[in-house]
């Protein structure tokens, strides 16, 4: 489930716009999305934005393209512009909060998730995202509560399950953490956070070989974010006797 952009709004400017033409453009974009022709919809949105059409759907699609190209800074600028244009649009606010999170700006992301929850208290993804931001800020107790609320609303929310697994793992509740991590991996094999949770559970059980194998897989996977690679390597180093470590000359 995602938030829908609101009604058409037109910014007053020096140059009058053809409102019927703009509405037709938006209808074309929505039709492409309904037909699952996402690339075509994004191309239309980019062209419309370049032509001066400002609308929440336009900003959101253009920002999604930038994020898909790892141009998160540019996406953030565009989403902030869109949020200023339509501050009440929940879809834009959700996208803005998530973009800030991906840029590891967890503090600025949190108020957006709070606002989303205030507007839509039963929207599970907002609770899960809020939990992830709180967890990144070191506020584990609040994060756990947010993850549990998300799971109560949407039991299969992977972000919430994985987040709760990580919280439980760090609290050394390894049996609980293992069960949650296995739920995640049953749906998303290779999910690095969940693999690290299992590795920690293996370490706690004394199965160093299994933990080492899992962690080296995380480090070797090109899809693993750098921060998680560093964490996995740190855990490997902690398990490796100092005499067996290899140091650069």
What is the gist of this entry?
By secondary structure, the protein is mostly helical. The chain is 71% helix and 0% strand. Among the domains are: 30-103, Serine Threonine Protein Phosphatase 5, Tetratricopeptide repeat (Alpha Horseshoe); 176-239.
How far apart are the first and last residues' alpha carbons, in Å? 53 Å
Alpha-carbon Rg, integer: 22 Å
The class by helix and strand makeup works out as: mainly alpha
What CATH calls the topology of the domain at 30-103 is: Serine Threonine Protein Phosphatase 5, Tetratricopeptide repeat
* CATH class term of the domain at 30-103: Mainly Alpha
The H-and-E topology, N to C, reads as HHHHHHHHHHHHH
Question: What are the salient characteristics of this protein?
Answer:
disordered C terminus, elongated, 249 residues
Task: Explain what the structure shows.
Helix 1 (19-34) runs antiparallel to helix 2 (38-50) and helix 9 (158-170) packs antiparallel against helix 10 (174-187). The protein starts with 18 loop residues before the first helix and ends in a 10-residue tail after the last helix. Mean pLDDT is 90; it is low at 1-5, 7-14 and 245-249. The longest helix has 16 residues, at 19-34. It has 249 residues and is mostly helical. Among the domains are: 30-103, Serine Threonine Protein Phosphatase 5, Tetratricopeptide repeat; 176-239. The chain contains 13 helices and no strands.
Indicate the topology.
Layout: H1 19-34, H2 38-50, H3 56-68, H4 72-85, H5 90-102, H6 106-119, H7 124-136, H8 140-153, H9 158-170, H10 174-187, H11 192-204, H12 208-220, H13 226-239
Helix pairs in contact: 1-2, 2-3, 3-4, 3-5, 4-5, 5-6, 6-7, 7-8, 7-9, 8-9, 9-10, 9-11, 10-11, 11-12, 12-13
